[in-house]
Design goal:
The chain is of the alpha/beta class. The protein has 3 domains: 34 residues, no CATH class; 317 residues, TIM Barrel (Alpha-Beta Barrel); 139 residues, Galactose-binding domain-like (Jelly Rolls). 24% of the residues lie in helices and 20% in strands. The protein has 11 helices and 17 strands. The strands form 3 sheets. An 8-stranded parallel beta sheet has the order 5-4-3-2-1-8-7-6, with helices on both faces. It has a 5-stranded antiparallel beta sheet with strand order 9-11-16-13-14, with no helix packed on it. Strands 10-17-12-15 form a 4-stranded antiparallel beta sheet, with no helix packed on it. α1 packs antiparallel against α2. The radius of gyration is 26 Å and the shape is globular.
Length: 510
């Protein structure tokens, strides 16, 4: 309809023009029509970069806090630790770490290879504070980024590294000149070089994790200075824009998390995002009016004590971990779940067993999609392009690059799934085609036992945003109870409001 109105208005304009001008304008209009021959919806800005889309698709991945702190029973060392303190009781086994994560349904992992104490888990040229100088049987031959990257490739998993910008060991960190200005020695001599070394362990890394710690209330060794130091602007001090461009040149798909400005901390370390969650802005909820694409990542501990392994810690139940998944990945965020290796350099047996249990639970609860077997009815379908259509079946074809859409100007619609025989339903999953922006602002979900009379589901959950992925328990609870589900011959999704014509590439029903 929009194209028709535009054409009629343009025709009236052409009729009032001299022939030459009209001919020129006619050519221009034809070119415009040909430029959108597929009738592709206009993007709703901001939109993600291709690397941000790929990062979002990782969804659920592991965090491995392992290093000097594993052997000193600390969470934050001060950088004065003797290299010999790093003393694994066996050869560290990153492949075992990733195998456990894969059994849990994770798609990758991030290995901590340098924490705030500055101790590096590879033989770096930037400092003497590294594994090669440990002098211990297994420590001196350790190279975590090398072995972690190799294992990830073998297991077809994504991988990346946490490298702390803050360095309590380095004499250069936070150093000032005689005029009281910060020097650039640390960024140039240490941090940039460490990031470049890590980039060489694989061009296909998906994330480099930068903690936002900037000193202040933690006394550091700093090469023997033994003092408190702080920096006032991480972006400037670490020269992040230059670093980001340099690392992208080496690893084109890498996201620089944290101070890198390409993905945000979700705002807590408890494994939840807001029920309303925009992929712009900050914190648990984001902002509908944010000007930059900035999806949230939720970092959470699977164990009972710290981020690093500590004697006597326990692992959370599979039900608790599944709840975290629903409240992060199921709320338009990603989940990076910390499972720390112990002093042997491997994951404890209890952790491995729990990851396998979680994977089986995920498969049981979210593994059988009933939507492809349903007949789908929609109130409107966007006019097809020359070679592309926007039909309802695109939501169940398993192709993330096809999507259902309404016509321009239509910001509400109804999608109904029907089965000949009643099905037991517990969850519904929606995925927007985020390459053209996040759109949906309000929707409802209903089920019908007889196919005619509908009852609203999802309890008091805020059915507002969708984004990359939204998973809703129909009983309104993300808690441990799986529930009996609802017998239904139909499920209806009503999009009540959208920033522009809604685009859904997948709807799944479990």
């Amino acid at each position: 309809m929009k194209n028709t109105i535009f054409f009629l208005a343009a025709s009236a304009l052409l009729a009032s023009m001299p022939l030459t001008a009209a001919a020129q304008e006619g050519i221009r209009l034809q070119e415009q029509q040909l430029n959108n021959a597929e009738n592709t919806p206009c993007p709703v800005f901001p939109v993600p970069s291709e690397r941000q889309v790929k990062w979002n698709e990782t969804e659920f991945y592991a965090f491995y806090h392992y290093g000097m702190n594993t052997y000193t029973n600390a969470e934050w060392g001060d950088g004065s630790e003797a290299n010999s303190k790093f003393n694994p009781t066996a050869a560290p086994n990153p492949k075992q770490w990733l195998e456990a994560a894969k059994k849990a349904g994770m798609k990758g992992g991030i290995a901590v290879v340098k924490h705030h104490d500055g101790f590096c888990l590879w033989p770096t040229k930037t400092t003497d504070h590294h594994v090669g100088n440990s002098g211990t049987q297994y420590g001196s031959t350790t190279n975590i980024p090398r072995d972690f990257a190799k294992a990830a490739v073998e297991l077809d998993m994504k991988y990346g590294f946490y490298v702390s910008p803050w360095d309590l060991n380095s004499p250069y960190w936070g150093k000032k000149d005689e005029k009281g200005n910060y020097t650039d020695e640390y960024a140039k001599k240490v941090f940039f070089e460490q990031c470049a070394e890590l980039a060489e362990f694989g061009k296909d890394q998906f994330e480099m994790w930068f903690d936002g710690a900037t000193g202040g209330d933690h006394k550091g060794y700093y090469g023997g200075a033994n003092e408190y130091r702080t920096i006032d602007n991480a972006q400037t001090y670490y020269d992040i824009p230059n670093l980001r461009d340099s690392i992208h040149n080496l690893c084109p798909d890498i996201i620089l998390w944290g101070v890198g400005g390409e993905a945000r901390w979700i705002g807590n370390e408890q494994g939840w995002a807001g029920e309303t969650n925009w992929a712009m802005g900050s914190g648990e909820y984001g902002s509908e009016t944010g000007w930059q694409w900035n999806s949230g990542e939720s970092d959470a501990k699977a164990t009972s004590k710290g981020w690093f392994w500590h004697s006597g810690e326990t692992i959370s139940s599979a039900d608790v971990l599944f709840k975290m998944y629903l409240e992060t990945v199921g709320r338009n965020a990603t989940l990076i779940l910390n499972i720390p290796p112990d002093k042997s350099g491997s994951l404890p047996e209890a952790t491995v067993a729990r990851m396998e249990e979680l994977g089986k639970m995920m498969e049981q609860r979210l593994g059988t999609d009933l939507a492809p077997a349903a007949a789908i009815e929609v109130t409107e379908t966007r006019t097809a392009g020359q070679t592309v259509d926007y039909k309802a079946g695109n939501m169940t074809d398993g192709n993330k690059d096809t999507y259902w859409a309404t016509n321009d100007g239509t910001t509400s619609a109804t999608i109904t799934f029907r089965w000949d025989e009643p099905q037991t339903l517990r969850y519904v999953m929606l995925m927007e085609y985020i390459r053209l922006g996040q759109r949906i602002k309000a929707f409802t979900v209903e089920t019908s036992e007889d196919g005619e009379n509908f009852t609203r589901r999802c309890g008091s959950i805020a059915t507002t945003t969708v984004g990359y992925k939204r998973i809703l328990p129909l009983n309104g609870s993300t808690a441990s109870s799986y529930g009996a589900g609802y017998k239904a011959k139909a499920l209806r999704i009503t999009i009540n409001d959208s920033k522009a014509c809604p685009l859904l590439h997948t709807v799944s029903i479990f």
